[in-house]
Write a structure and sequence with these properties.
The protein has 373 residues and is of the alpha/beta class. It contains eleven helices and 19 strands. The strands form four sheets. Strands 3, 5, 6, 10, 11, 18 and 19 form a seven-stranded mixed beta sheet that branches. It has a six-stranded parallel beta sheet with strand order 14-13-12-15-16-17, with helices on both faces. Helix content is 25%, strand content 27%.
Length: 373
């Protein structure tokens, strides 16, 4: 639909037109006029995450064309008429936990489980936030951070301390908040616990970090990448590492290191078969936490004997993030030298190189790639 009475502003974005396709760097339009509860943000940085990769690979189906990217940071350039607590010039983290603030989940302190996220989107009769030649370009998770500019609902952003480096701040919106929150907030890892983290990517490394901050005695990182495992031990608190090459019995190695199994095992990859491995590595009465994002058609099978051993399998969404509360806390911990962030960054690239960054992500190289504007 064309909106002839509305001026538009152009900016560049990486657009995906079909599953298994390439990202195209193109001019995309945003509306010149904001709705009352919206903000306009000049993007500073955005992280590349496996959740984005799932959409590219067709494992997660979403309307297209679409602009991906769901952990981003930037500077506010405009605010809507009814936005009173965000100002032009504020530094913000944009996070995919975009909450309505009014449903039973939001009012009970669980915005990550918001039941009415559609309330934060533009309606069918309104001009889309992104378009190209009069055709809507969809926002992945209501963020669309693979772009020079974002038009967002006010509840999609959290104002942060301006001393926080904006490139590192981007990772607080997903990898850091999800990982640290999964260990500290969701699982409630306690001093002396034994923890296993399957998958040492951006989220998994932060699960290790969260477990270390919570006082876990044993933290075992599991990954195919020797580089990621070395990083987990050197910078993110892992006490042991298991390289999951072919023929390695991960569960047996874990049991040998933990006197029968771990109290908490985190699956941070999003591979259904690894949930069974996680259960095998869990002690009687322990818990498996499914942090990774699985494909839409994924099914998980495991022996009921695990349930009779008192083991639990729990889904995790965004580390139960409360953006307005938890992100400022993470910023404070970074500024005090408690939280490690710089070591997460494998590479910083411009938007023009995002295709190569996606290829590296698919190959399992490095920790987190940041697109920096």
């Amino acid at each position: 639909m064309v909106y002839p009475d509305v001026e538009e502003t152009d900016m560049r974005a990486a657009v995906l037109y079909e599953p298994h396709g390439q990202l195209h760097i193109q001019e995309v339009e945003t509306p010149a006029r904001l709705l009352p509860h919206e903000v306009r943000v000049r993007t500073a940085a955005v992280g590349l995450c496996h959740s984005d990769l799932h959409v590219i690979h067709g494992l997660v189906a979403r309307p297209m064309p679409v602009v991906l990217g769901h952990e981003a940071s930037g500077v506010v350039t405009e605010v809507g008429a009814e936005v009173e607590d965000v100002e032009v010039g504020d530094h913000v983290v944009a996070c995919f936990v975009v909450f309505c603030g009014a449903c039973r989940m939001c009012t009970s302190g669980r915005p990550a489980m918001c039941q009415h996220r559609e309330a934060t989107m533009r309606g069918a009769g309104e001009e889309p936030r992104l378009s190209r030649a009069g055709v809507e370009v969809h926002q992945w998770t209501n963020i669309a951070g693979f772009a020079e500019e974002m038009v967002l609902h006010r509840n999609a952003v959290t104002v942060i301390d301006e001393r926080m480096p904006l490139d590192l701040a981007a990772m607080l919106g997903c990898a850091v908040a999800t990982g640290v929150g999964s260990a500290r907030k969701v699982a409630g890892v306690a001093p002396g616990d034994a923890v296993v983290v399957i998958g040492a990517g951006g989220v998994g490394l932060n699960v290790c970090q969260g477990a270390a901050l919570a006082g876990a005695q044993t933290i075992i990182a599991v990954d195919r990448s020797a580089h990621r495992l070395e990083l987990a031990q050197r910078r993110f608190g892992a006490t042991h590492a298991i390289q999951a090459s072919e023929g390695v019995d991960v569960a047996a190695r874990v049991k040998a290191l933990t006197d029968g199994g771990a109290d908490h095992v985190f699956e941070a990859v999003g591979a259904p078969g690894l949930v069974g491995v996680a259960l095998d590595a869990t002690v009687r009465g322990g818990s498996v936490w499914a942090v990774g994002v699985f494909g839409d058609e994924a099914r998980i099978d495991f022996s009921a004997a695990h349930l009779h051993s008192g083991k639990g399998v729990h889904g995790v969404r965004a580390g139960s993030l409360e953006p307005q509360k938890d992100i400022p806390q993470l910023v404070d911990e970074y500024l005090r030298g408690v939280l490690e962030l710089e070591a997460l960054v494998g590479e910083r690239i411009p938007l023009d190189q995002i295709g190569a960054g996606i290829d590296a992500l698919a190959a399992g190289a490095g920790a987190r790639t940041l697109v920096v504007f």
